Amino acid sequence: EVKLVLVERDQYQLERLLEAGKLDMIFTMLPMDNPNIRVIPLVEDEFLIALPQSHPVSREQLEKNPGLLDETGSQTQFPTIDLSRCKDAKFALSGKDRLKFAQLAALKTAFEPQLGFETDSLESLVAIAAFAPHGAMVPKLFSTLYDAQERPLFFHCREKLPTWSFALSVQKNVQLSEPAVEYIRLFTEYIEKLGLLREELRTQNAKR
Question: What is the pTM of this model?
């Protein structure tokens, strides 16, 4: 019997707990530079623009495309917009400093952004975009993780946006337990089914 215990902390605290042997593995956002930790990149995901459903661009898309939301309220597709259409929205930023700087630089290619909330949590960013209301850049993976009633609308952007890298990290030179290895295998399969597994890992899995 395997007991799975989930612990939620900020990334710095998770790294310290992993180094101390109190956690078997952690999920982290890249980049991460820690010589005591082995990083296994799993996902490189595109960013979408998230806008509250009350934003003029969202209302326009909903009127133009009645099938944009299905009968449960879930989004069926991601329309493509020009980033400049979002210039009147306040934007929330998320992630570690390097990721926040990348988001800010992308916004500045189209307009001088009005900044609102900042958070280290990408999960919180979806709620902020839905209810604050703010615009935000959200990894595509996170567009599917919430009840339809709590989601903003998500859009592809014609301009190039930064990518988001997600990794599983373990202690260097420490042999993982069999349950930990099995969990990594199952989680990797789940990410692959979502179509988000990094190309080099898909190739490795195909060769097994």
Answer: 0.73
Q: Is 3 left (phi over 0), alpha (psi -120 to 50) or beta?
A: beta
Give the span between the Cα atoms of 125 and 150, in whole angstroms: 12
Helix 199-207 to helix 178-193 angle, to the nearest 10 degrees?
110
Query: Which DSSP state fits 113?
Result: P
The distance between the two most distant Cα atoms of the chain, rounded to a whole number of Å, is 56
- So what's the pLDDT on residue 148? 63
| DSSP secondary structure of 151-196 | --EEEEESS---EEEEEEEEETT-PPPHHHHHHHHHHHHHHHHTT-
- Report whether pLDDT(206) > 50: no
Report the C-alpha gap between 56 and 88 in whole angstroms: 10
* CA–CA distance, 191 with 10 (Å, rounded to integer): 22
* Cis amide bond preceding 35, omega within 30: no
